[in-house]
Amino acid sequence: MYQCCIFDLDGTLIDSISAISYTTNLTLEKYGLGPIDEELYKKFVGDGYKKLMERALIHCGDTELYHYEDSLVTYMDNFKIHCMHEVKAYEGVNDMLSYLKDNDIKIAVLSNKPHERTLDNVNGVFGEKYFNRVAGQMDSVKRKPDPEGAVITAKELNVLPEDCLYIGDTNTDMMTGISAGMDTIGVTWGFRTREELESYNPKYVIDHPSEIKNIIKRVTV
């Protein structure tokens, strides 16, 4: 019986690609680089902002990463201002979260986005009514796909890993959930393809948030 759902944030609960692409392109502009098309950013995200900037700079021709260190500071300054740019919940997410809350399923967010910006996004879109724990990337915890954050989340919520569902939209998420010993769900409405998700053999691959309710119902009955 599942007692907890741990969600990735970007591409899983919220459509935030416009904020990410806007911020990164604004950062690249400082160095006379870019812009990069928004669709391409769906392949660049998932591993934290440092990897995002590395991929963006290399794509724009800075293969020696001459601007890398400065770009990290610039990105964070820009993202503090623009992290809510056109951000919205995916259709069906609020209904799904309400169902989990009403049925006493613990709900958590685990993101590779910097912790403060994760809080900005979660509180800005959902408020404080759903989540038992929200964690973005912090220096004290290894970033996904290392399972440490997922395991810590389960422990803090007093739930065994095998009683958790881990839900995400990228290869990083599939590796995280599976390595943490959690039944893992790949979602196809986010930033990556069904083929990518299925290649990691998660427990489930779904096309709409309502399917999470169905999974919970089947296992609970």
Question: Short description, anyone?
Answer:
With 221 residues, the chain is an alpha/beta fold. It has helices spanning 17-29, 38-44, 49-59, 68-82, 93-102, 115-126, 148-156, 171-179, 194-198, 210-220, and strands at residues 4-7, 14-15, 88-89, 106-114, 133-137, 164-168, 183-187, 204-206.
Explained architecture:
One of its GO terms (cellular component) is cytosol. GO terms for molecular function: phosphoglycolate phosphatase activity. InterPro entries: HAD-like_hydrolase_sf (IPR050155), HAD-like_sf (IPR036412), HAD-SF_hydro_IA (IPR006439), HAD_2 (IPR041492), HAD_sf (IPR023214), PGP-like_dom2 (IPR023198). It comes from Romboutsia weinsteinii. The protein has helices spanning 17-29, 38-44, 49-59, 68-82, 93-102, 115-126, 148-156, 171-179, 194-198, 210-220, and strands at residues 4-7, 14-15, 88-89, 106-114, 133-137, 164-168, 183-187, 204-206. With 221 residues, it is α/β, with parallel strands linked by helices. It folds into 2 domains: 4-15 and 87-220, Rossmann fold (3-Layer(aba) Sandwich); 17-82, DNA polymerase, domain 1. It has a 6-stranded parallel beta sheet with strand order 5-4-1-6-7-8, with helices on both faces. Strand 7, helix 9 and strand 8 (204-206) form a beta-alpha-beta unit. The chain is globular, with a radius of gyration of 17 Å. The termini are close together. 42% of the residues are buried. The model has no long low-confidence stretch (mean pLDDT 96).
